[in-house]
Design brief:
3 domains, elongated, Helix Hairpins, five-stranded antiparallel beta sheet, alpha+beta, single chain
Length: about 450
């Protein structure tokens, strides 16, 4: 189980153990230096103290003398001017003489000995000590530092476990509060008396709850609006079907069927627009990045709607075009252009004109769709992007979703859209701007 509490316990105890071992190591090396200095001084003092003793005949040891010598720290030897050993504190442990006066190191009997030698009135005095004795003393000092740390580790582990558990209690309380909520509860979490480290997480959760609440409210509004708008065409289809059933002649039946087909077409168009609006919602899904050519898409949309424009008697074409690439997925760009052109065709009377233009200016790809229709009154321009809103007095059939879909796609891809009057003071001009990625495929060639 991946537990913060367990990981903190392991890391903190490991750090304490490492610190104890490191402190013991440092103590050992420092103590060894101090012990060496101390015993070197002691060796020197022992030699100086023996300089004033008269010569002593060699001692002969028996029994366990060698065993006692091995346990002893110091070995003292005195030679006369002829190199004859005249005193040995441990006759069975005769160390070799140093080659020079003062301190020296000797390797003898699998051990290292520290010696100090001095001459006085024809006598040479040497005092030796095994280095193992010094190392054992330094190790004992280091162990006295390490043992308390090792003994205290279990107690420290309990203290850390309890204190970390109490420190993490706010996280458990937040988790319990979220787990006890109903799916529709979007009120923010309380942020009173929380640890400083937990406040950013609670703020992020509250921000997420606020955005979820807004998205759910938009979804509920969308469902309510969709249900309201679908009720009318479905009721009309039902009535038109009854007229077909009641038709007394072939002519009446054909007229009723034509109305039925028209009603079904309007219902299909409304459903398609609703689906497109749901997909274009900024909160629906993150925008898919991918470079798309605005100029190529403009040509494709004009080709798609050319037949419909001819059927309505409208001149649809491209007035000006420059290569431009934008960071918009091609499907969304096609839906947006299609809705702008479809709206223009619907509201432009027969004999009218619709011009598309694509240009690059100030780091933006600028797309304009201008028609020669009746336009939109200035007082209604701020509302035509609302769902299902249609300008009062409009006789053209529609769902009131086209411009809402366009706006959602533009906002989703961090673009800008503006509506205004056409260049000749009549009609409607829709201007869309996206950040320019490059000058397009044509520019590359």
């Amino acid at each position: 189980m991946n537990s913060i509490r367990s990981r903190l316990l392991v890391w903190m105890l490991s750090a304490l153990a490492f610190a104890g071992i490191a402190a013991s190591g440092m103590t050992y090396f420092e103590a060894r230096e101090d012990v060496n200095d101390l015993f070197d001084y002691q060796l020197q003092q022992m030699v100086l103290s023996l300089e004033h003793r008269p010569g002593v005949a060699p001692r002969v040891s028996r029994g366990d003398a060698e065993d006692r010598a091995e346990e002893s720290d110091f070995v003292t030897e005195i030679w006369d001017r002829h190199g004859q050993l005249i005193f040995a504190s441990h006759p069975r442990m005769i160390l070799p003489r140093s080659a020079s006066q003062g301190y020296a190191m000797h390797h003898w009997r699998h051990d290292t000995w520290r010696t100090y030698e001095a001459s006085w009135r024809g006598l040479t005095i040497q005092v030796a000590q095994p280095m193992t004795a010094r190392a054992e003393m330094a190790a004992a000092m280091a162990l006295r530092v390490l043992v308390p740390v090792l003994v205290l580790l279990p107690l420290l582990g309990v203290v850390i476990w309890v204190s970390v558990g109490r420190g993490l209690r706010p996280l458990k309380e937040i988790g319990a509060a979220l787990g006890a909520r109903s799916p529709s509860a979007m009120s923010p979490l309380g942020a009173v008396n929380l640890p400083v480290e937990v406040v950013p997480m609670v703020a992020a959760v509250n921000d997420l709850l606020a955005r979820l609440s807004e998205a759910m409210e938009r979804q509920r509004q969308f469902i309510g609006d969709a249900a309201h708008e679908l009720r009318t065409p479905l009721t009309a289809i039902q009535l038109q079907l009854q007229l077909v059933e009641r038709a007394g002649s072939a002519a009446e039946r054909e007229t009723a069927l034509a109305e039925l087909r028209s009603g079904i077409g309007r219902a299909i168009h409304l459903v398609q627009q609703l689906l497109a609006l749901a997909r274009a919602e900024p909160q629906a899904a993150p925008a898919v990045s991918g470079a798309a050519s605005v100029d190529e898409m403009a040509r494709a949309v004009v080709a798609d709607y050319a037949a419909l424009a001819v059927d309505r008697g409208v001149d649809l074409g491209i007035a000006h075009i420059e290569p431009a690439m934008v960071d918009v997925d091609s499907d969304s760009l096609r839906v947006m252009l299609g809705n702008l052109v479809d709206n223009a065709i619907r509201y432009t009377p027969s004999g009218g004109r619709i011009d598309l233009s694509v240009s690059a200016a100030a780091g933006d790809a600028v797309l304009e769709v201008e028609d020669s229709g009746p336009g939109i009154c200035a007082e209604h321009l701020s509302r035509v992007f609302d769902r299902f809103y249609r300008e009062p007095g409009t006789q053209v059939p529609g769902s009131g979703l086209g411009l809402a879909i366009v706006k959602n796609i533009v906002e989703r891809h961090r673009g800008r859209i503006a509506l205004g009057v056409g260049k000749n003071g009549r009609g409607l001009r829709a201007t869309v701007r996206f950040a320019l990625v490059s000058r397009g495929s044509a520019a590359a060639g």
